[in-house]
Design brief:
This protein has 250 residues and is mostly helical. Helix content is 61%, strand content 0%. It has one domain: Butyryl-CoA Dehydrogenase, subunit A, domain 3. The longest helix has 21 residues. The model has no long low-confidence stretch (mean pLDDT 93).
Amino acid sequence: MADAPSSNQELLRRELPRLYAFAYSMCCSRDEALSAVRQLVADVRAQGEAKFLGAANPSDALLGLMARSLEESLGRKSEFTFEGLDEILRSDITRPIDLTGGPLGGDPIKLHTMLWELKRTCLAATLSCLPPGVRVSFVLTDLMGFGPVEAAELLGIKESAYRVRLTRARKRVEDYLTPRCAHVDHQNPCTCTGRLLIAIEANFIKLPAHRQDIPHEPHDADGPRRDMGSLYRSLPVVQLLDPELEALVS
């Protein structure tokens, strides 16, 4: 077990990478995730050293603050809708990848990177179709492993209310992905390779600024995952770069 942090700066340096990944799962945007952790740093500094260092679990106290803040700032509406995702990615026919030119520039490394980015972005956007209060339950429990009791405490709500949110989140994600996504069932029509050029032309994805959170393995190397929590946990976690981290905590 790591030693208890001696300052908010030390606590933030430890926890911001995890909180950045949490914010990305909630926002489906690296830029918005960075803005969220920047706001968190400001909120922590405004509340002083004792607020978090004196908490029973300083790490979870930070996570709870961010979860509540994001739920409030994101509002009741979802940025994406399931119908909108279908319109972006599935209204056109499958298009084969051409490595002789086009947006991939004949670069197999870029192709590998963009396939991973599409997989991660598409699944994150699916979560973003849920209202933030429902979305956060899936992220806390099925991605981060918090039980309903602990997660409800983080959010400051009743356990029964949290369980309703979690059940709703799981059902809506499962209902949407199960008949569509090839990562759930290889017989499903929506494959990353077939939709990649469509996603690029629709500006649904763009080349990430770095490849530190892009695995070496192909995006479809593992088998189908019919359990939604397992599917989402298999995604590579977005990483906060060291210079970004230092800029936040300095």
